[in-house]
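Dear support,

Our group has been running a series of protein-ligand predictions, and this particular one with NAP is the one our PI (initials K.S.) wants archived with full inputs and outputs. We had some confusion internally about which version of the output was final, so please treat the block below as the authoritative record. The input we submitted was:
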Amino acid sequence: MSSVSAYYNGKTVLITGATGFMGKVLVEKLLRSSPEVKAVYILVRPKAGQSMQERVANMVKCKVFDRVREDCPHFHEKIKPINAELTQPKLAISAEDEEELLARVNVVFHCAATVRFDEPLKWLDESIIQDITPKLLGEWPNTYTYTKALSEYLIQQEKGNLNIAIIRPSIVGASWHEPFPGWIDNFNGTSGIFIAAGKGILRTVIANNEAVADMIPVDVAINLTLAAGWYTAVHRPKNLLVYNCTTGGINPFFWGEMGQYVMSTFKRNPLEQAFRTPNAHMTSSYLINQYWITVSHKAPAILYDLYMRLTGRKPRMMKIINRLHKSMTLLQYFSTQSWSWSSDNMNMLMTHLNTEDKKLYNFDVRQLHWSEYIESYCIGAKKYLLNEDMAGIPAAKQHLRKLRNIRYAFNTTLLVIIWRIFIARSQMARNIWYFVVSLCYKFLSYFRASSTLRH
Ligand SMILES: NC(=O)c1ccc[n+]([C@@H]2O[C@H](COP(=O)([O-])OP(=O)(O)OC[C@H]3O[C@@H](n4cnc5c(N)ncnc54)[C@H](OP(=O)(O)O)[C@@H]3O)[C@@H](O)[C@H]2O)c1
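Confirmed final output from the archive:
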């Protein structure tokens, strides 16, 4: 019997950020692995013209819940949405809801956050905050990491006698096994970059091939979170424990390898309607990167947008390229450096799990085979993010062949034009040209004569 699963059975759990990528995996795993969990309260805000109820009704229809739906068709009845906006005083939770939560909730998982690296700070007048942000950030690379550090500090200071643990995942990627291999539902972080590379839009990336790409599958992070929740509640460690949920120190994976695996997967399983054949390179040189940005990002985007304009359609490629450059600039800090994170608490937690826990809440990343994981991640992005059917792969390959022929024809035409211009201006180039042409002519005549003799 799994101790972790047994702990959550009969408990009432509150989750923030349940509509997000990790939150959904957490809700699903909790309901599936502890089917007797009493209730799962989730804090949800209305968004994009949808009420809280509409959002939750759409959320439970998501594919990520297919497995728990199979085991327990009425799983959604345990999900209790509460209207909340976390940036508002008292989280904008009504007095009745607050009373209900205080009376019932046993465990809280706080997952909500904005994952934009450059979200403006908001607690003062906008113009003042803009001026002082660089000073506040100091050594921190962005507002995301700065506010995370602030929150951790605040928790340390204010936790009182609550049993709290902090989980710090590195770059969270698609799921490794659960609920399905390769499951992913947003374009944040590496997912959007993989897709841009697979579509042939992204051709150059600033990264250090030898730097550690500290990626962690979402199901590993969630398994660790649930196990850490159990350990914190049952073993009540004296100090607040921080679990670095990372792979770099245990099973390191490098940016160079990542680039290779992504390219090779998309060559074998191309995305539909690619813009160009996938061919992204990593470089640690700013100048080389700028060169490729101009030649391989901006120039084709300008040509494509011109073509769109001429055919009466809305140009969009330059906009996509600008957005891509913005996220690449934010990622650069992480793709050019390595960090060492202690895995001590993760290893300690593992020693407290029984055999059943280790199977049900597996976070042993030594078993992770990176090339298989990245292949499943890219295929997951194709299936779950872009809704592309694997049956469309032959057509996608055909499209890539067409793009390759267009590229050959374009390059040949360009070469001939450049050569003609060169010939018109230089006697030496003309002489070389006549020499090559006469050589070809002689070779052809010789070939014809020798084949006539043989017959
Ligand atoms: N993804 C990663 O690579 C990664 C890595 C390390 C740590 N983390 C941390 O893991 C947690 C979950 O990340 P994620 O990738 O699942 O992010 P996500 O998909 O963007 O989800 C964020 C969640 O937070 C909610 N939220 C944000 N602001 C809110 C507000 N003001 N009021 C109420 N709800 C709010 C969102 O609700 P709406 O749906 O209403 O927007 C959403 O449910 C975050 O704390 C993140 O910092 C993520």
